[in-house]
UniProtKB/TrEMBL annotation, chains A, B:
InterPro entries linked to this entry: cNMP-bd_dom, cNMP-bd_dom_sf, HTH_CRP, RmlC-like_jellyroll, WH-like_DNA-bd_sf, WH_DNA-bd_sf
Stretch forming the signal peptide: none
PROSITE patterns: CNMP_BINDING_3, HTH_CRP_2
Lineage of producing organism: Bacteria, Pseudomonadati, Pseudomonadota, Alphaproteobacteria, Rhodobacterales
Superkingdom, natural source: Bacteria
UniProt source species: Rhodosalinus halophilus
Name of the protein described by the UniProt record: Crp/Fnr family transcriptional regulator
Cyclic nucleotide-binding domain span: 43-118
Length: 271, 271
DNA sequence: CGGCGAGTTGATTTTCATCAAACACTGTGG
DNA sequence: CCACAGTGTTTGATGAAAATCAACTCGCCG
Protein backbone atom coordinates (compact mmCIF):
# COMPACT_ATOMS: atom_id res chain seq x y z
CA UNK A 1 0.00 0.00 0.00
CA UNK A 2 0.95 3.61 0.03
CA UNK A 3 -0.44 4.90 -3.25
CA UNK A 4 -3.73 6.23 -4.48
CA UNK A 5 -5.55 4.95 -7.51
CA UNK A 6 -7.85 7.28 -9.36
CA UNK A 7 -10.88 5.80 -11.02
CA UNK A 8 -12.75 7.57 -13.74
CA UNK A 9 -16.49 7.88 -13.85
CA UNK A 10 -18.35 6.05 -16.60
CA UNK A 11 -21.67 7.78 -16.40
CA UNK A 12 -23.04 11.16 -17.19
CA UNK A 13 -23.04 12.75 -13.80
CA UNK A 14 -19.62 14.29 -14.23
CA UNK A 15 -19.35 15.46 -17.83
CA UNK A 16 -16.10 17.27 -17.40
CA UNK A 17 -14.53 14.45 -15.50
CA UNK A 18 -11.96 13.41 -18.00
CA UNK A 19 -9.95 16.57 -18.11
CA UNK A 20 -9.93 16.89 -14.38
CA UNK A 21 -8.91 13.30 -14.00
CA UNK A 22 -5.99 13.42 -16.34
CA UNK A 23 -4.72 16.55 -14.72
CA UNK A 24 -4.62 14.80 -11.38
CA UNK A 25 -3.60 11.36 -12.38
CA UNK A 26 -0.57 9.93 -10.74
CA UNK A 27 0.29 8.31 -7.51
CA UNK A 28 -0.20 10.27 -4.36
CA UNK A 29 0.71 9.12 -0.90
CA UNK A 30 -2.14 7.48 0.96
CA UNK A 31 -2.99 8.62 4.48
CA UNK A 32 -1.58 6.63 7.32
CA UNK A 33 -4.18 5.02 9.58
CA UNK A 34 -2.77 6.79 12.58
CA UNK A 35 -3.39 10.12 10.87
CA UNK A 36 -6.88 9.18 9.75
CA UNK A 37 -9.09 12.21 10.42
CA UNK A 38 -12.07 9.99 11.16
CA UNK A 39 -10.39 8.44 14.16
CA UNK A 40 -10.42 11.75 15.96
CA UNK A 41 -14.20 12.01 15.94
CA UNK A 42 -16.00 11.20 19.15
CA UNK A 43 -18.45 9.22 17.13
CA UNK A 44 -16.00 6.39 16.73
CA UNK A 45 -14.61 4.03 19.33
CA UNK A 46 -10.91 4.36 20.08
CA UNK A 47 -8.34 2.03 18.59
CA UNK A 48 -5.68 0.34 20.64
CA UNK A 49 -2.15 0.85 19.23
CA UNK A 50 -2.12 -2.82 18.37
CA UNK A 51 -5.37 -2.58 16.46
CA UNK A 52 -3.99 0.39 14.64
CA UNK A 53 -0.93 -1.51 13.48
CA UNK A 54 -3.06 -4.38 12.33
CA UNK A 55 -5.39 -2.16 10.34
CA UNK A 56 -2.45 -0.44 8.76
CA UNK A 57 -1.30 -3.78 7.37
CA UNK A 58 -4.80 -4.80 6.46
CA UNK A 59 -5.30 -1.70 4.35
CA UNK A 60 -4.16 -2.25 0.80
CA UNK A 61 -4.44 1.29 -0.51
CA UNK A 62 -6.66 4.21 -1.19
CA UNK A 63 -8.96 4.90 -4.06
CA UNK A 64 -10.20 8.23 -5.27
CA UNK A 65 -13.33 8.13 -7.40
CA UNK A 66 -15.36 10.82 -9.08
CA UNK A 67 -19.01 11.62 -8.75
CA UNK A 68 -21.03 9.10 -10.70
CA UNK A 69 -18.65 6.18 -10.31
CA UNK A 70 -20.11 2.83 -9.36
CA UNK A 71 -17.92 1.71 -6.48
CA UNK A 72 -19.58 -1.67 -5.95
CA UNK A 73 -21.92 -3.30 -8.43
CA UNK A 74 -25.03 -5.29 -7.61
CA UNK A 75 -24.55 -8.92 -8.57
CA UNK A 76 -20.79 -8.70 -8.90
CA UNK A 77 -18.14 -10.31 -6.72
CA UNK A 78 -16.14 -7.46 -5.25
CA UNK A 79 -12.47 -8.25 -4.67
CA UNK A 80 -12.11 -5.10 -2.63
CA UNK A 81 -13.92 -3.76 0.40
CA UNK A 82 -13.91 -0.14 1.43
CA UNK A 83 -14.27 2.34 4.20
CA UNK A 84 -15.40 5.80 3.14
CA UNK A 85 -12.86 8.47 4.07
CA UNK A 86 -14.40 11.44 2.30
CA UNK A 87 -17.37 12.15 0.09
CA UNK A 88 -20.84 10.67 -0.17
CA UNK A 89 -22.73 8.12 -2.20
CA UNK A 90 -25.89 6.03 -2.35
CA UNK A 91 -26.47 2.31 -1.91
CA UNK A 92 -29.24 1.18 -4.21
CA UNK A 93 -30.98 -1.79 -5.73
CA UNK A 94 -32.22 -1.69 -9.31
CA UNK A 95 -35.43 -3.33 -10.49
CA UNK A 96 -36.04 -4.70 -13.91
CA UNK A 97 -38.67 -2.03 -14.47
CA UNK A 98 -36.10 0.73 -14.45
CA UNK A 99 -37.04 1.80 -10.96
CA UNK A 100 -34.55 1.68 -8.14
CA UNK A 101 -34.65 1.70 -4.35
CA UNK A 102 -32.07 3.70 -2.47
CA UNK A 103 -31.35 1.60 0.63
CA UNK A 104 -29.08 4.02 2.43
CA UNK A 105 -26.66 6.85 1.92
CA UNK A 106 -22.93 6.17 2.17
CA UNK A 107 -21.17 8.68 4.40
CA UNK A 108 -17.62 8.97 5.75
CA UNK A 109 -16.83 6.17 8.18
CA UNK A 110 -19.19 3.71 6.50
CA UNK A 111 -17.93 0.27 5.64
CA UNK A 112 -18.88 -0.88 2.15
CA UNK A 113 -19.01 -4.45 0.95
CA UNK A 114 -19.85 -6.53 4.00
CA UNK A 115 -22.14 -8.65 1.86
CA UNK A 116 -19.40 -9.24 -0.67
CA UNK A 117 -17.11 -10.25 2.19
CA UNK A 118 -19.59 -12.86 3.44
CA UNK A 119 -21.65 -14.18 0.56
CA UNK A 120 -20.53 -14.46 -3.00
CA UNK A 121 -21.91 -11.22 -4.36
CA UNK A 122 -23.26 -7.83 -3.54
CA UNK A 123 -27.03 -7.52 -3.62
CA UNK A 124 -26.94 -3.77 -4.11
CA UNK A 125 -24.74 -1.18 -5.79
CA UNK A 126 -22.87 1.73 -4.29
CA UNK A 127 -22.51 4.83 -6.42
CA UNK A 128 -20.55 7.97 -5.64
CA UNK A 129 -22.61 11.17 -5.61
CA UNK A 130 -19.62 13.41 -4.93
CA UNK A 131 -15.95 12.63 -5.44
CA UNK A 132 -15.07 10.05 -2.82
CA UNK A 133 -11.91 8.84 -1.19
CA UNK A 134 -12.03 5.22 -0.10
CA UNK A 135 -9.78 3.15 2.08
CA UNK A 136 -9.43 -0.27 0.42
CA UNK A 137 -9.06 -3.78 1.84
CA UNK A 138 -8.63 -7.13 0.17
CA UNK A 139 -11.64 -9.35 0.49
CA UNK A 140 -9.45 -12.42 0.82
CA UNK A 141 -7.78 -10.97 3.92
CA UNK A 142 -11.03 -10.99 5.84
CA UNK A 143 -10.66 -14.54 6.98
CA UNK A 144 -7.23 -13.75 8.35
CA UNK A 145 -8.79 -10.92 10.29
CA UNK A 146 -11.28 -13.29 11.89
CA UNK A 147 -8.55 -15.66 12.97
CA UNK A 148 -6.04 -13.13 14.17
CA UNK A 149 -8.07 -10.21 15.42
CA UNK A 150 -11.35 -11.18 17.03
CA UNK A 151 -11.88 -7.60 18.21
CA UNK A 152 -12.01 -6.43 14.65
CA UNK A 153 -14.17 -9.38 13.63
CA UNK A 154 -16.58 -8.36 16.36
CA UNK A 155 -16.60 -4.84 14.96
CA UNK A 156 -17.46 -6.14 11.52
CA UNK A 157 -20.44 -7.99 12.91
CA UNK A 158 -21.35 -4.82 14.74
CA UNK A 159 -21.28 -2.88 11.49
CA UNK A 160 -23.63 -5.46 10.00
CA UNK A 161 -25.97 -5.21 12.97
CA UNK A 162 -25.99 -1.43 12.68
CA UNK A 163 -26.96 -1.65 9.05
CA UNK A 164 -29.66 -4.15 9.92
CA UNK A 165 -31.00 -1.76 12.51
CA UNK A 166 -31.06 1.13 10.07
CA UNK A 167 -32.81 -0.90 7.40
CA UNK A 168 -35.39 -1.96 9.97
CA UNK A 169 -36.09 1.67 10.74
CA UNK A 170 -36.27 2.55 7.07
CA UNK A 171 -38.67 -0.30 6.45
CA UNK A 172 -40.85 0.90 9.29
CA UNK A 173 -40.89 4.39 7.88
CA UNK A 174 -41.84 3.24 4.41
CA UNK A 175 -44.41 0.80 5.66
CA UNK A 176 -46.12 2.83 8.35
CA UNK A 177 -45.53 6.54 7.95
CA UNK A 178 -47.11 9.00 5.50
CA UNK A 179 -44.97 11.05 3.13
CA UNK A 180 -44.41 14.03 5.40
CA UNK A 181 -43.26 11.98 8.39
CA UNK A 182 -41.20 9.74 6.17
CA UNK A 183 -39.38 12.66 4.63
CA UNK A 184 -38.85 14.31 7.98
CA UNK A 185 -37.49 11.07 9.42
CA UNK A 186 -34.99 10.64 6.61
CA UNK A 187 -33.68 14.18 6.69
CA UNK A 188 -33.53 14.22 10.45
CA UNK A 189 -31.56 10.98 10.54
CA UNK A 190 -29.13 12.11 7.87
CA UNK A 191 -28.68 15.47 9.55
CA UNK A 192 -27.76 13.77 12.81
CA UNK A 193 -25.26 11.52 11.10
CA UNK A 194 -23.61 14.40 9.28
CA UNK A 195 -23.57 16.40 12.49
CA UNK A 196 -21.77 13.60 14.31
CA UNK A 197 -19.20 13.61 11.52
CA UNK A 198 -18.43 17.23 12.30
CA UNK A 199 -19.78 18.47 8.99
CA UNK A 200 -22.25 20.95 10.43
CA UNK A 201 -21.59 24.61 9.82
CA UNK A 202 -22.99 26.92 12.47
CA UNK A 203 -25.32 28.79 10.13
CA UNK A 204 -25.12 26.94 6.84
CA UNK A 205 -26.26 23.51 7.98
CA UNK A 206 -24.64 20.41 6.53
CA UNK A 207 -23.47 19.59 3.00
CA UNK A 208 -26.17 17.58 1.24
CA UNK A 209 -25.14 16.83 -2.32
CA UNK A 210 -28.02 14.54 -3.27
CA UNK A 211 -30.77 15.17 -5.78
CA UNK A 212 -34.46 15.13 -4.88
CA UNK A 213 -34.68 12.04 -7.03
CA UNK A 214 -32.25 10.24 -4.72
CA UNK A 215 -34.39 11.06 -1.72
CA UNK A 216 -37.55 10.09 -3.58
CA UNK A 217 -36.04 6.71 -4.44
CA UNK A 218 -35.04 6.24 -0.82
CA UNK A 219 -38.53 7.03 0.47
CA UNK A 220 -40.54 5.16 -2.12
CA UNK A 221 -42.23 8.37 -3.24
CA UNK A 222 -42.51 9.92 -6.67
CA UNK A 223 -40.23 12.83 -7.45
CA UNK A 224 -43.15 15.22 -7.70
CA UNK A 225 -44.65 14.18 -4.41
CA UNK A 226 -41.27 14.40 -2.70
CA UNK A 227 -40.88 17.90 -4.01
CA UNK A 228 -44.29 18.95 -2.69
CA UNK A 229 -43.61 17.34 0.65
CA UNK A 230 -40.33 19.22 0.94
CA UNK A 231 -42.15 22.44 0.14
CA UNK A 232 -44.56 21.69 2.96
CA UNK A 233 -41.80 21.05 5.49
CA UNK A 234 -40.13 24.24 4.35
CA UNK A 235 -43.39 26.17 4.80
CA UNK A 236 -43.55 24.79 8.33
CA UNK A 237 -40.08 26.25 8.91
CA UNK A 238 -38.77 22.84 9.79
CA UNK A 239 -35.96 22.76 7.25
CA UNK A 240 -34.44 24.24 4.13
CA UNK A 241 -32.52 22.44 1.42
CA UNK A 242 -30.91 24.48 -1.30
CA UNK A 243 -27.60 24.73 -3.12
CA UNK A 244 -26.54 21.34 -1.84
CA UNK A 245 -26.92 22.23 1.81
CA UNK A 246 -29.47 21.04 4.33
CA UNK A 247 -30.38 23.24 7.26
CA UNK A 248 -32.52 22.10 10.16
CA UNK A 249 -32.79 24.96 12.64
CA UNK A 250 -34.26 22.79 15.39
CA UNK A 251 -33.78 19.06 14.86
CA UNK A 252 -35.76 18.20 17.97
CA UNK A 253 -38.73 20.14 16.69
CA UNK A 254 -38.52 18.33 13.37
CA UNK A 255 -38.33 15.00 15.17
CA UNK A 256 -41.31 15.94 17.27
CA UNK A 257 -43.32 17.14 14.29
CA UNK A 258 -42.64 13.97 12.34
CA UNK A 259 -42.94 11.41 15.12
CA UNK A 260 -39.31 10.32 15.03
CA UNK A 261 -38.20 8.52 18.16
CA UNK A 262 -34.80 9.81 19.27
CA UNK A 263 -31.89 7.44 18.73
CA UNK A 264 -28.49 8.78 19.73
CA UNK A 265 -25.62 7.51 17.60
CA UNK A 266 -23.32 6.40 20.43
CA UNK A 267 -19.71 5.36 19.88
CA UNK A 268 -19.38 2.83 17.13
CA UNK A 269 -16.41 1.01 15.70
CA UNK A 270 -14.61 2.27 12.64
CA UNK A 271 -13.34 -0.34 10.24
CA UNK B 1 -27.63 -27.29 29.98
CA UNK B 2 -29.83 -30.29 29.40
CA UNK B 3 -33.22 -29.12 30.52
CA UNK B 4 -36.12 -27.30 28.93
CA UNK B 5 -37.76 -24.27 30.41
CA UNK B 6 -41.36 -23.56 29.57
CA UNK B 7 -42.39 -19.96 29.38
CA UNK B 8 -45.95 -18.85 29.66
CA UNK B 9 -47.62 -16.39 27.34
CA UNK B 10 -48.66 -13.05 28.76
CA UNK B 11 -50.90 -11.85 26.03
CA UNK B 12 -54.30 -12.70 24.74
CA UNK B 13 -53.44 -14.89 21.84
CA UNK B 14 -53.59 -18.06 23.89
CA UNK B 15 -56.48 -17.74 26.32
CA UNK B 16 -56.30 -21.27 27.60
CA UNK B 17 -52.57 -21.15 28.06
CA UNK B 18 -52.39 -21.40 31.78
CA UNK B 19 -54.04 -24.74 32.23
CA UNK B 20 -52.08 -26.27 29.42
CA UNK B 21 -48.85 -24.88 30.75
CA UNK B 22 -49.24 -26.19 34.25
CA UNK B 23 -50.08 -29.63 32.96
CA UNK B 24 -46.83 -29.72 30.99
CA UNK B 25 -44.53 -27.95 33.35
CA UNK B 26 -41.42 -29.79 34.36
CA UNK B 27 -37.98 -30.40 33.02
CA UNK B 28 -37.61 -32.38 29.86
CA UNK B 29 -34.36 -33.39 28.28
CA UNK B 30 -33.08 -30.92 25.69
CA UNK B 31 -32.01 -32.21 22.30
CA UNK B 32 -28.34 -32.77 21.77
CA UNK B 33 -26.76 -30.65 19.04
CA UNK B 34 -25.60 -33.72 17.20
CA UNK B 35 -29.21 -34.90 16.98
CA UNK B 36 -30.52 -31.51 15.90
CA UNK B 37 -32.99 -32.15 13.09
CA UNK B 38 -32.07 -28.87 11.40
CA UNK B 39 -28.51 -29.99 10.79
CA UNK B 40 -29.72 -32.68 8.45
CA UNK B 41 -31.26 -30.22 6.03
CA UNK B 42 -29.37 -29.46 2.87
CA UNK B 43 -30.11 -25.82 3.43
CA UNK B 44 -27.51 -25.59 6.15
CA UNK B 45 -23.78 -25.85 5.91
CA UNK B 46 -22.18 -28.88 7.57
CA UNK B 47 -20.56 -28.68 10.99
CA UNK B 48 -17.15 -30.11 11.72
CA UNK B 49 -17.11 -32.43 14.75
CA UNK B 50 -15.09 -29.81 16.55
CA UNK B 51 -17.63 -27.10 15.82
CA UNK B 52 -20.32 -29.42 17.03
CA UNK B 53 -18.60 -29.95 20.37
CA UNK B 54 -18.12 -26.24 20.79
CA UNK B 55 -21.73 -25.43 20.05
CA UNK B 56 -22.85 -28.07 22.46
CA UNK B 57 -20.98 -26.30 25.23
CA UNK B 58 -22.12 -22.90 24.04
CA UNK B 59 -25.75 -23.89 24.24
CA UNK B 60 -27.21 -23.23 27.66
CA UNK B 61 -30.55 -24.89 27.28
CA UNK B 62 -33.81 -25.02 25.43
CA UNK B 63 -36.91 -22.97 25.86
CA UNK B 64 -40.42 -23.88 24.87
CA UNK B 65 -42.80 -20.96 24.50
CA UNK B 66 -46.44 -20.75 23.57
CA UNK B 67 -48.13 -18.83 20.82
CA UNK B 68 -48.29 -15.17 21.76
CA UNK B 69 -45.17 -15.07 23.90
CA UNK B 70 -42.78 -12.18 23.37
CA UNK B 71 -39.42 -13.89 23.03
CA UNK B 72 -37.35 -10.74 22.70
CA UNK B 73 -38.59 -7.28 23.55
CA UNK B 74 -37.82 -4.09 21.66
CA UNK B 75 -35.73 -1.78 23.82
CA UNK B 76 -34.72 -4.45 26.32
CA UNK B 77 -31.30 -5.92 26.92
CA UNK B 78 -31.64 -9.61 26.19
CA UNK B 79 -29.41 -11.83 28.33
CA UNK B 80 -30.20 -14.78 26.08
CA UNK B 81 -29.90 -15.35 22.36
CA UNK B 82 -31.77 -18.00 20.48
CA UNK B 83 -31.90 -20.22 17.46
CA UNK B 84 -35.36 -21.34 16.41
CA UNK B 85 -35.71 -25.11 16.47
CA UNK B 86 -39.43 -25.40 15.81
CA UNK B 87 -42.38 -23.09 15.33
CA UNK B 88 -42.76 -19.63 13.82
CA UNK B 89 -42.93 -16.03 14.91
CA UNK B 90 -42.70 -12.44 13.74
CA UNK B 91 -40.06 -9.78 14.25
CA UNK B 92 -41.70 -6.40 14.53
CA UNK B 93 -41.21 -2.79 15.50
CA UNK B 94 -43.94 -0.86 17.26
CA UNK B 95 -44.70 2.80 16.63
CA UNK B 96 -46.10 5.20 19.15
CA UNK B 97 -49.25 5.49 17.08
CA UNK B 98 -50.23 1.89 17.78
CA UNK B 99 -49.13 0.78 14.35
CA UNK B 100 -46.40 -1.79 13.90
CA UNK B 101 -44.10 -2.92 11.12
CA UNK B 102 -43.38 -6.61 10.74
CA UNK B 103 -39.74 -6.74 9.63
CA UNK B 104 -39.49 -10.44 8.98
CA UNK B 105 -40.89 -13.79 9.94
CA UNK B 106 -38.92 -16.01 12.29
CA UNK B 107 -38.65 -19.58 10.99
CA UNK B 108 -36.73 -22.66 12.13
CA UNK B 109 -32.99 -22.17 11.80
CA UNK B 110 -33.19 -18.40 12.31
CA UNK B 111 -30.87 -16.79 14.82
CA UNK B 112 -32.59 -14.29 17.10
CA UNK B 113 -30.90 -11.52 19.01
CA UNK B 114 -27.86 -10.56 16.98
CA UNK B 115 -28.54 -6.92 17.77
CA UNK B 116 -28.71 -7.66 21.47
CA UNK B 117 -25.40 -9.47 21.16
CA UNK B 118 -23.71 -6.46 19.56
CA UNK B 119 -25.34 -3.27 20.75
CA UNK B 120 -26.95 -2.75 24.10
CA UNK B 121 -30.54 -3.46 23.17
CA UNK B 122 -32.88 -4.96 20.67
CA UNK B 123 -34.51 -2.53 18.28
CA UNK B 124 -37.38 -4.84 17.48
CA UNK B 125 -39.43 -7.52 19.21
CA UNK B 126 -39.85 -11.17 18.39
CA UNK B 127 -43.19 -12.74 19.14
CA UNK B 128 -44.19 -16.38 18.78
CA UNK B 129 -47.12 -17.01 16.47
CA UNK B 130 -47.19 -20.75 17.12
CA UNK B 131 -45.65 -22.65 20.01
CA UNK B 132 -41.90 -22.42 19.51
CA UNK B 133 -38.91 -24.36 20.72
CA UNK B 134 -35.77 -22.29 21.00
CA UNK B 135 -32.16 -23.18 21.52
CA UNK B 136 -30.70 -20.71 24.01
CA UNK B 137 -27.23 -19.16 24.37
CA UNK B 138 -25.79 -16.77 26.89
CA UNK B 139 -25.11 -13.33 25.50
CA UNK B 140 -22.00 -12.98 27.61
CA UNK B 141 -20.47 -16.05 25.98
CA UNK B 142 -20.42 -14.38 22.59
CA UNK B 143 -17.13 -12.71 23.12
CA UNK B 144 -15.59 -16.04 24.04
CA UNK B 145 -16.88 -17.39 20.77
CA UNK B 146 -15.14 -14.65 18.84
CA UNK B 147 -11.82 -15.35 20.52
CA UNK B 148 -11.93 -19.12 20.41
CA UNK B 149 -13.91 -19.99 17.33
CA UNK B 150 -13.43 -17.60 14.45
CA UNK B 151 -15.36 -19.91 12.13
CA UNK B 152 -18.44 -19.45 14.23
CA UNK B 153 -17.81 -15.72 14.53
CA UNK B 154 -17.69 -15.57 10.76
CA UNK B 155 -21.02 -17.41 10.62
CA UNK B 156 -22.53 -14.90 12.97
CA UNK B 157 -21.50 -12.05 10.72
CA UNK B 158 -22.87 -14.03 7.81
CA UNK B 159 -26.21 -14.30 9.56
CA UNK B 160 -26.21 -10.53 9.99
CA UNK B 161 -25.37 -10.00 6.33
CA UNK B 162 -28.18 -12.33 5.32
CA UNK B 163 -30.65 -10.38 7.38
CA UNK B 164 -29.34 -7.15 5.88
CA UNK B 165 -29.88 -8.58 2.43
CA UNK B 166 -33.42 -9.62 3.22
CA UNK B 167 -34.30 -6.25 4.68
CA UNK B 168 -32.90 -4.60 1.57
CA UNK B 169 -35.20 -6.68 -0.58
CA UNK B 170 -38.15 -5.98 1.66
CA UNK B 171 -37.41 -2.25 1.54
CA UNK B 172 -37.27 -2.42 -2.24
CA UNK B 173 -40.61 -4.19 -2.37
CA UNK B 174 -42.30 -1.69 -0.10
CA UNK B 175 -40.75 1.28 -1.82
CA UNK B 176 -41.11 0.31 -5.44
CA UNK B 177 -43.75 -2.33 -5.97
CA UNK B 178 -47.55 -2.02 -5.96
CA UNK B 179 -49.70 -4.08 -3.62
CA UNK B 180 -50.14 -7.11 -5.86
CA UNK B 181 -46.44 -7.55 -6.63
CA UNK B 182 -45.51 -6.84 -3.04
CA UNK B 183 -47.85 -9.50 -1.75
CA UNK B 184 -46.71 -12.00 -4.35
CA UNK B 185 -43.09 -11.31 -3.50
CA UNK B 186 -43.61 -11.89 0.21
CA UNK B 187 -45.54 -15.10 -0.18
CA UNK B 188 -43.18 -16.42 -2.80
CA UNK B 189 -40.17 -15.73 -0.61
CA UNK B 190 -41.74 -17.32 2.45
CA UNK B 191 -42.86 -20.32 0.44
CA UNK B 192 -39.32 -20.89 -0.76
CA UNK B 193 -37.92 -20.64 2.73
CA UNK B 194 -40.45 -23.08 4.13
CA UNK B 195 -39.83 -25.40 1.21
CA UNK B 196 -36.10 -25.42 1.93
CA UNK B 197 -36.92 -26.34 5.52
CA UNK B 198 -38.67 -29.47 4.26
CA UNK B 199 -42.08 -28.29 5.42
CA UNK B 200 -43.80 -28.61 2.05
CA UNK B 201 -46.48 -31.23 1.73
CA UNK B 202 -46.97 -32.58 -1.77
CA UNK B 203 -50.55 -31.43 -2.15
CA UNK B 204 -51.24 -29.34 0.93
CA UNK B 205 -48.57 -26.67 0.50
CA UNK B 206 -46.72 -25.37 3.53
CA UNK B 207 -47.91 -24.54 7.06
CA UNK B 208 -48.59 -20.82 7.28
CA UNK B 209 -49.91 -19.92 10.72
CA UNK B 210 -49.95 -16.15 10.34
CA UNK B 211 -52.94 -13.84 10.22
CA UNK B 212 -53.69 -11.55 7.32
CA UNK B 213 -52.97 -8.71 9.72
CA UNK B 214 -49.39 -9.98 10.14
CA UNK B 215 -48.87 -9.96 6.40
CA UNK B 216 -50.50 -6.55 6.08
CA UNK B 217 -48.14 -5.15 8.71
CA UNK B 218 -45.20 -6.68 6.89
CA UNK B 219 -46.21 -5.17 3.57
CA UNK B 220 -47.25 -1.76 4.77
CA UNK B 221 -50.80 -2.28 3.50
CA UNK B 222 -54.10 -2.03 5.28
CA UNK B 223 -55.77 -5.25 6.33
CA UNK B 224 -58.65 -4.69 3.93
CA UNK B 225 -56.41 -4.00 0.99
CA UNK B 226 -54.28 -7.03 1.78
CA UNK B 227 -57.40 -9.16 1.82
CA UNK B 228 -58.55 -7.85 -1.54
CA UNK B 229 -55.11 -8.32 -3.02
CA UNK B 230 -55.04 -11.92 -1.81
CA UNK B 231 -58.43 -12.47 -3.38
CA UNK B 232 -57.03 -11.19 -6.66
CA UNK B 233 -54.01 -13.49 -6.57
CA UNK B 234 -56.34 -16.35 -5.74
CA UNK B 235 -58.57 -15.47 -8.69
CA UNK B 236 -55.48 -15.57 -10.87
CA UNK B 237 -54.87 -19.11 -9.62
CA UNK B 238 -51.48 -18.10 -8.33
CA UNK B 239 -51.99 -19.21 -4.75
CA UNK B 240 -54.41 -20.26 -2.05
CA UNK B 241 -54.16 -19.59 1.65
CA UNK B 242 -56.69 -21.16 3.96
CA UNK B 243 -56.79 -23.06 7.23
CA UNK B 244 -53.26 -22.01 8.05
CA UNK B 245 -51.73 -23.47 4.92
CA UNK B 246 -50.26 -21.71 1.92
CA UNK B 247 -50.29 -23.42 -1.45
CA UNK B 248 -48.47 -22.10 -4.49
CA UNK B 249 -49.01 -24.53 -7.35
CA UNK B 250 -46.34 -22.97 -9.54
CA UNK B 251 -43.89 -20.75 -7.65
CA UNK B 252 -42.08 -19.79 -10.85
CA UNK B 253 -45.28 -18.55 -12.40
CA UNK B 254 -46.02 -16.50 -9.29
CA UNK B 255 -42.53 -15.05 -9.40
CA UNK B 256 -42.94 -14.23 -13.06
CA UNK B 257 -46.36 -12.66 -12.55
CA UNK B 258 -45.12 -10.49 -9.70
CA UNK B 259 -41.72 -9.50 -11.06
CA UNK B 260 -39.72 -11.33 -8.39
CA UNK B 261 -36.12 -11.93 -9.36
CA UNK B 262 -35.10 -15.48 -8.49
CA UNK B 263 -32.75 -15.83 -5.53
CA UNK B 264 -31.84 -19.38 -4.53
CA UNK B 265 -31.23 -19.87 -0.82
CA UNK B 266 -27.87 -21.67 -1.08
CA UNK B 267 -26.18 -23.32 1.88
CA UNK B 268 -26.01 -21.06 4.88
CA UNK B 269 -24.56 -21.50 8.33
CA UNK B 270 -26.70 -22.61 11.23
CA UNK B 271 -25.94 -21.05 14.59
C1' DC C 1 -28.73 30.89 -28.75
C1' DG C 2 -30.42 26.03 -27.73
C1' DG C 3 -30.27 22.00 -24.98
C1' DC C 4 -30.01 19.66 -20.76
C1' DG C 5 -30.56 18.61 -15.89
C1' DA C 6 -32.81 19.73 -11.85
C1' DG C 7 -36.45 21.85 -9.47
C1' DT C 8 -41.29 23.63 -9.18
C1' DT C 9 -46.36 23.88 -9.80
C1' DG C 10 -51.19 22.69 -11.30
C1' DA C 11 -54.62 19.27 -13.18
C1' DT C 12 -56.09 14.61 -13.37
C1' DT C 13 -56.18 9.66 -12.38
C1' DT C 14 -55.11 5.67 -9.65
C1' DT C 15 -54.13 3.29 -5.65
C1' DC C 16 -54.85 2.49 -1.30
C1' DA C 17 -56.93 3.66 3.47
C1' DT C 18 -60.85 4.15 6.14
C1' DC C 19 -65.47 3.18 7.51
C1' DA C 20 -69.09 -0.01 7.98
C1' DA C 21 -71.39 -4.24 7.99
C1' DA C 22 -71.61 -8.71 7.36
C1' DC C 23 -70.04 -13.85 7.75
C1' DA C 24 -67.74 -18.14 9.60
C1' DC C 25 -65.83 -20.37 13.27
C1' DT C 26 -64.56 -21.31 18.20
C1' DG C 27 -65.08 -21.73 22.85
C1' DT C 28 -68.13 -20.60 26.88
C1' DG C 29 -71.81 -20.59 29.97
C1' DG C 30 -76.66 -20.85 30.87
C1' DC D 1 -78.92 -27.52 23.26
C1' DC D 2 -78.62 -22.74 22.08
C1' DA D 3 -77.33 -17.86 22.78
C1' DC D 4 -73.14 -15.14 23.09
C1' DA D 5 -68.94 -13.10 22.66
C1' DG D 6 -64.51 -13.01 20.44
C1' DT D 7 -61.43 -13.43 16.65
C1' DG D 8 -60.43 -13.54 11.95
C1' DT D 9 -62.00 -13.05 7.17
C1' DT D 10 -64.76 -10.99 3.48
C1' DT D 11 -67.22 -7.42 0.82
C1' DG D 12 -69.08 -2.78 -0.58
C1' DA D 13 -69.08 2.36 -0.27
C1' DT D 14 -66.50 6.53 0.33
C1' DG D 15 -62.54 9.56 0.80
C1' DA D 16 -57.66 10.70 1.16
C1' DA D 17 -52.95 10.11 -0.28
C1' DA D 18 -49.89 9.64 -3.74
C1' DA D 19 -48.80 8.67 -8.81
C1' DT D 20 -48.88 10.34 -13.27
C1' DC D 21 -49.11 13.78 -16.82
C1' DA D 22 -47.90 18.16 -18.43
C1' DA D 23 -46.02 22.58 -18.48
C1' DC D 24 -42.85 25.90 -17.06
C1' DT D 25 -38.68 27.91 -14.54
C1' DC D 26 -33.84 28.54 -13.68
C1' DG D 27 -28.94 27.95 -14.09
C1' DC D 28 -25.23 25.92 -16.64
C1' DC D 29 -22.54 24.67 -20.46
C1' DG D 30 -21.29 24.08 -25.24
Amino acid sequence: MGSVVIVRSWNSRAPSALKFDIARRGRTLATDCKDCPLRRLELFRDFSPEELRFMQRFKTGEMQVEAGTTVLLEGAKAPQLYTVLRGMGVRSKALGSGRRQVLNFALPGDFLGLQAAMMAEMTYSVEAVTPMRLCAFRRSDIWDLYKRFPERAFDLTWAGALEERFLGEALTSLGQRPARERTGWALHTLYRRLQALGLEHRTEGVPFPFRQQDLADALGLSLVHTNKTLARLRAEQLLTWEDGRLRIPDPDRLAEACGVEPTEPGPRPLI
